[in-house]
Amino acid sequence: MARKTSDARAVSARERARERAAQYRAREARLEELGVSYFSAVDQVERVYALRDKEIAVAEEKASRGSAEALADADQVIREMLELGVPRAEAIERLGCTSADVRRATAVAGQAAPAEDDEPEVEAAEGRMLAEPMVDGSTAEHGTSGAGEAGHSEESRDDAEAARGPDFSMAP
């Protein structure tokens, strides 16, 4: 009788082991399915990003062409205004552009920028004095005078600094 009991125990142990192995295999199969689903979703995300990047590149190219045409039109307007004899400072004020815009517009056409006004140029967007390039490549700041310049007193330097207004830049 002892043999039947030990056989029954062995059969029961084998059944429990098979059940657990079946549960383990089912769990592993489910984990594999989840992994496949995950990697499929990640691949889809990468395809979407690749499509987005391609569409962005196309849009940037289109915008670049469109903005170049519009900028050429804007430059033409600036040149026409200057050709009518409007001083640079007045053109800047009327158009709300910067002196850099005027320099670019005149450089594009290969024109020398008209220098009919000796007034300081004020950049419309920021309201501060600008340094203008001179023919020899150096720059001259309008509205300021440096220390030690001939013909300028200490009082005129103070007046020039006061005319410039407060410096709100974060420079040390």
Largest sheet composition: 2 strands, antiparallel
Count of distinct strands? 2
User: Ranges with pLDDT <50 over ≥5 residues?
Assistant: 111-136, 138-156
Shape: rod-shaped
Percent of residues in beta strands? under 5%
Mean pLDDT value: 75
* Class per helix and strand makeup: mainly alpha
Helicity level = 55-70%
Q: H/E series, N to C?
A: HHHEEH
Radius of gyration: 39 Å
Biggest β-sheet: strands ordered side by side in the sheet = 1-2
- Total helix count? 4
What layout of secondary structure does this protein have?
Blueprint: H1 2-83, H2 88-95, H3 99-108, E1 131-133, E2 139-141, H4 154-164
Antiparallel strand pairs: 1-2
Helix pairs in contact: 1-3
Question: How would you characterize the overall build of this protein?
Answer:
This protein is mostly helical. Among the domains are: 50-117, no CATH class; 129-164, no CATH class. The protein is built from 4 helices and 2 strands; from the N terminus they run H-H-H-E-E-H. A hairpin with a 5-residue loop joins strand 1 and strand 2 (139-141). The longest helix has 82 residues, at 2-83.
